[in-house]
Amino acid sequence: MPPVSDAELIARVVVVDDRHAFSELVRRHQSAVRATLRRLTAGNHALADDLAQDTFMLAYRNIKSFRQEARFSTWLYRIATNAFLADARRRKEELIGDRTEQLPDESSDDAGPQDGTESDHAAGTGLRIDMERAMAVLTEGERAAIVQCYHNDLSHEEAAWVLNCPVGTVKTHILRAKQKLKARLGAWAPE
Amino acid sequence: MTDRPDIASDTGDDWLDAALRGDGLAHRAEYVDDDGFTARVMAGLPAPATLPAWRKPVLALLWAAAGIGVAVALPGAATDVMREIVRVFVHPVSTAQIAAGVAMLGAATWAAAALALRQD
Questions:
Q1: ipTM here
Q2: What's the whole-model pTM score?
């Protein structure tokens, strides 16, 4: 039997408040939503899971307003991003302060390839770790734009819908974010 | 994505664009185990809306009141109905009338059953 589509599960939730259908939707999308929030929170898994739980609660309460103008996953990204941005506004000092303390100094050897003899896999892992740390220096808007466009593979138009801002703002966020990341990750640039 | 490459070439940071794309691929390949997350979400949902126990008796009373109201509002209707019932049972009836009566009784039974078995 083919798997039931998201649209059919959503219809069941809307029409007869089918809890099993909603739990199936959560099960299907929890990984993507939690992974996105982990990126947005710069690796704070506990906070990401709290926000993910809020995201699905809000999705349940507002599922009747979902009009299929976007994919269900994109709609969830929008709710998750809004939850993250609202939370970030509340705890801005704490979030940035904590992460900045953990960041290596720009001149530190940690912010670049470790050793020429290391394997490509190790180098790739090192770059990903440095990338995650460098993401923490971005503003919430810049980080959200990078995460939606690169990690969730959304178009600029979709990202603009998720972030509830004009496409031009998304492009500006990405440009500024890349300038900051370039400064942070300069040691990884090819000679 | 539609116009990401333009941004990369604008700033001359193709290596960074490639690194971000690689990071994005790794991100999408990553699976976060449910580990009880779905159960926690479901436990946090508001309780399902249930109809109060007094709803059905009250509805029955309202229907009865409405029926009495109609009977009072249409004087003579009840008498007419009773007279027709007596006429049907006193006078001999044809086979066609019996068949029609059975069909009407069946339809009424089906409608009543459907009403009783419907999900509230």
A1: 0.75
A2: 0.65
